[in-house]
Amino acid sequence: MTEIYEHLLELIRSGQRGVLVTVTEVKGSVPRHTGSKMVVHSDGSIAGTIGGGKLEKEAVEDAVKIMAAPHYAKRNFHLTGDEGMLCGGSVELLFEPVGGADRLIIFGAGHIAQALCPLAKEAGYNVIVVDDRPEYANSNRFPQASQIIVGEYNQSFAGLSFNERTFIVIVTYGHKRDEEVLQHCIRQPFVYLGMIGSKRKTATLFANLQEKGIEREWIAKVHSPIGLKIGAETPHEIAVSILAEMIAVRHHVPVDDLSMKLKK
Length: 264
What we know:
Elements: H1 2-13, E1 17-27, E2 37-41, E3 46-48, H2 53-68, E4 73-78, E5 90-99, E6 103-107, H3 111-122, E7 126-131, E8 147-150, H4 153-156, E9 166-170, H5 175-185, E10 192-195, H6 199-211, H7 216-219, H8 235-250, H9 255-263
Parallel strand pairs: 6-7, 6-9, 7-8, 9-10
Antiparallel strand pairs: 1-2, 1-5, 2-3, 4-5
Helix pairs in contact: 3-8
């Protein structure tokens, strides 16, 4: 068991992703006892074992899928004799994503970004700040950021990578810059993409994107106006509303349902 925890620690330190699979409940005849663990890597390789055979094969397949949109999950397996499962018992498995922290890219280094950065860091995000103003985008204002990119936005894109664990917040200081960033980000892989702005501004920018050939289904993925509707006014309150919306998306909670509840 110690080897599994040492393996997990090394995985986290290296920035890699994985899923810890644990046997949480057993009934009848099963290959391994409660508490047995294995770690599944993004390429499907494993460390440890939960019993081998078809049970382990299906658990690895499930773990790789969970890594694509990280979330905790449980699954019951019945070893009934079908398809090679001959033990006759049942096993409950817990899937826990580990390592590879979600990444938040904040475009804009103003007051809202400054309030959001430490909150997001505390919530487990790896934060990157991008702005074209060195007097705003610096380590004095963003000590919690893992990376600060200073330069024209259209030139900064080359230094950024996006994946299925990327969260994006657009809070620049001008509509043209917001549109420029949005146009680039909207076709990138991401979990969450939010943009600051009123309903009128949002409608105008979305219409512009459609004229430029951006499909409606892509535009529909953008959260704008950004943040949960909690009556936020100050930069800190707005940052809280943005982070709350990000967390809801991270845990697959319907954002529209939350907003409706908050209105009541």
